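Deliverable D5.2: sample structural annotation.
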Amino acid sequence: MQLLSATFTALLKEAQFTREMLGSGATQIRNANYASKGVYFQAFTSLSTGLERIGKLCLMLDFYIGHDGEFPDSDYMKYEIGHKIAVIYGKSTSIIVERTISMNFLQNLNDPIHQAILSVLSEFALGDRYSNINLLVGSGRQNDPIALWFNQVDQPLYETRVAKRKKGRIQENSRAVASILNQHARVLHTSETGAEITDIEEASHMTGMYEAVAPYRQLYVLQVIRYWVEFLSSLQYEAMKTRNEDIPFFTEIFAPFYNDDSYIRTRKTWDKF
């Protein structure tokens, strides 16, 4: 006798895969910097995939609740939902209002940094992931996702979250490094925005900036993930009232993400549970 329904198994596998993608992306986004740009693409790929999939799980459960245990068809998923993370988020806010869901952490992701994260990842999923190839072949879509992230996420975080004293120390350290190495070394690199870095002081400053911003960058990404986890958990219990045997305990699958900021800040790696 089969104990688990096909629906339960499919939802379970989808949730487990999504958790792994989100955990990988949340870990990688802390390590990406101008000297290891490939890590940005790894993080963006994992996060954009994970957020799209957990968002779709939420919208599918909402449909399931409202249609007596039936899931939407492929046309609905393709044309009504699509692949736009920003659009999926917009639908989530409407559902939260309609179902009067009260979130314990963030009621929405209207903070400018959260919105920037959703925007960059949404555009990455829609085509910016091919930015380098697009440039080479002369495609009209040539947005650089790393530059967008730096300008819309990292730079605002550095300006608003890093203390003035910390910024001063970064500047002093950059000058000290340059005074020691200028006569003995040269540097040639490119920044997140694509500008050439030929000055040791500038390179040192960029490194200091990355180290200061990285924990906040990861925190805000995890807050975005937590929003979707909490939303999914709320829908899970309503869906279980419809047909309990079909719905896994998503709360257990995504449990590490459902914690307050004080815990999130203490954890650097999220790819092993």
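Annotation notes: The two ends are 31 Å apart (CA to CA). The first helix runs from residue 6 to 31.
The annotation will be released with the project's public dataset once the embargo ends.
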